[in-house]
């Protein structure tokens, strides 16, 4: 049985570029994740977004980011309450897929965000990404509105309240 304390989150560093490039080139990530370039120093200094390497028992296997939805004037979640955080993530290591790690590490990060005062956490999977939507629903997310086109692509807006 996996528990939240078996997962750790450390900030992405410039020297994580090779690892992130490897993960982002994997077919299971490329299917849903558009970014394919490592982060530059300015990206990592952007206080609107916290980027994390996720590890299970010390083994790095995934990427997660959380961000203030109010950091961009035209963000599709900008009408949500002040303090709302958006999340995106992927499991980079294909050996870790299908074992419950996604639900566990997303849930652990959600709890940390709620504990830090976020009233709502929002996410925006592609409407065809059934695996991600199922995980989000297990974690208490509900759709709030129909699928819609954004500058980042077609999304299904979902949110969970603390």
Verbal overview:
This protein has 162 residues and is of the alpha+beta class. The chain has one domain: Aminopeptidase (3-Layer(aba) Sandwich), CATH 3.40.630. It is 25% helix and 28% strand. It contains 5 helices and 9 strands. The protein has helices at 17-24, 27-30, 41-45, 101-115, 130-138; strands at residues 7-11, 49-56, 59-68, 85-91, 120-123, 142-143, 148-150, 153-155, 158-161. The strands form 2 sheets. The chain has a 7-stranded mixed β-sheet, covered by helices on one side. The protein has a two-stranded antiparallel ribbon with strand order 7-8. Helix 4 (101-115) links the parallel strand 4 (85-91) and strand 5. It is globular, with a radius of gyration of 15 Å. The two termini are 24 Å apart. The model has no long low-confidence stretch (mean pLDDT 92).
Give the arrangement of secondary structure elements.
Elements: E1 7-11, H1 17-24, H2 27-30, H3 41-45, E2 49-56, E3 59-68, E4 85-91, H4 101-115, E5 120-123, H5 130-138, E6 142-143, E7 148-150, E8 153-155, E9 158-161
Parallel strand pairs: 4-5
Antiparallel strand pairs: 1-2, 2-3, 3-4, 5-9, 6-9, 7-8
């Amino acid at each position: 049985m996996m528990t939240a304390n078996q997962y750790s989150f450390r900030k992405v560093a410039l020297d994580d570029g090779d690892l992130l490039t490897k993960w982002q080139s994997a077919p299971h990530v490329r299917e849903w994740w558009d970014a394919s370039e490592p982060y530059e120093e300015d990206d990592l200094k952007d206080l609107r977004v916290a980027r994390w390497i996720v590890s299970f028992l010390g083994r790095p296997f995934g990427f997660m980011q959380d961000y203030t939805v109010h950091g961009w004037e035209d963000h599709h979640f900008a009408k949500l309450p002040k303090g709302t955080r958006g999340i995106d993530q992927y499991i980079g290591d294909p050996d870790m897929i299908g074992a419950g790690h996604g639900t566990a590490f997303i849930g652990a990060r959600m709890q940390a965000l709620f504990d830090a005062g976020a009233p709502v956490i929002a996410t925006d999977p592609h409407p065809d990404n059934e695996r991600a939507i199922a995980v989000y629903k297990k974690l208490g997310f509900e759709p709030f509105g129909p699928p819609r086109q954004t500058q980042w692509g077609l999304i299904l807006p979902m949110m969970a309240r603390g």
